[in-house]
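Example record

The entry below shows one chain as it appears in the dataset: sequence first, then structure tokens.
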Amino acid sequence: MSGRRNAGHGAWGTGHGSIAAVVSSALRLGFRRSLELFGRLVPRAPCSVPRFIAIGLISASSLAHAATDEPNFLELAAVLAADGNYEKAEIEFAKVDPAEPELDLIKYHTLAGLIALNRQRPVDAIKSFDEAIKAGQTEPTIFLYMAQAQFGLERYADVLKTLDRAGAAFDTLPAVFLMRAQANWLLKDQKAAFATLADGSRRFPGNTQFMRREVFFLMELGLYQEAADRGQQYLKVAEGKEEDFVAIGNALKRARQFDSALVFLESARLKFPASENVVKVLAATYLEAGKPLAAGELMYRASLSNPALKPEAAELLRRAGLHARALAVNAEIADQKLKLKQRLGILIELGRFAEVSGMEDALLRTRLIDEEDVRYALAYALYKEGEFERSEGHLAKLTKPDLFRKATELRQSMQDCAAERWKCV
């Protein structure tokens, strides 16, 4: 194994645009998914090998050396990593002798960190990046890699310290400002988070992500009116994603601006006709605005494409007073336990106790009877049907304090009307 100990680290700053995109994604996707995108930091073939030559992990001369009978495992691992094949890169990297006197330690530890980061071992990645810095790695991009690993470990204070170590090197990267803002936010330093967003907006006036992040921060603080106002300003200058429309519509709803929320979300439904999330927030807004029928109709139409929404559609129709339609939609639910439990509630509300009594076998078969709320509902229906003995059999099995008290009251009622059962009906 040959190589110069401190060579190969002069151009780590290249490719900041792609790095920025990945760091930005880390703010909202979490560590595992951000690592999937992290692979895009290194372009794939055919340009990957030249790129790794540029950042010092592959040297043109060593590639020629790798073609001889004596393989250079460090260079081979770097080539594989450049192709995005980190699993094979790790296999070849393991063949490198770390005790080799002429080993390029900067390259060795830097590549170890990249492999560990992409193999979802952030602790190992941080350790290797630290070793690379001790060996003489001076390019500031190493701190961005380290900060990403720390972010994935939820070490947000360390993220800020690591980014500070790079000095002004990242002042041209909007994504780093977003990362700082998010780290401050997760550290509960709201003032610093908003200040960082404001700083980023001033430095990068054409980047709307700062305004977008501000909207979500305001929502988390419960400042729904401010979030809605800021969100609508954001949509005037940005295309806006589905999740943005959902969040802003929800903010308007939470601010109880129902008319504005409905107009906004109806326009969102036209823009994203296949969005289930838009429909859900729109239906919830109609419901809170006192329009359960509109909410039910919306959800029922959505359930034609996604049957999993049928329970919600049936519930909304029940709230609208359309019990017959609610029961009809309920009959289409595939989940038997869910269907029976909802049907039980609707029939109890309608006073159709004979039908509830007839559900006893189905409740036993599905073990729904083990849920004490369900058992009490059945016992109550049996009581209303004059089936006192059967009712008592279920009441005796209740243990929850509130249901136990109700059972006691029901027993008293059965005793009071033992001689005149018509009074209990």
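Notes for this example: Residues 16-38 form the longest helix (23 residues). DSSP finds 25 helices and no strands in the chain.
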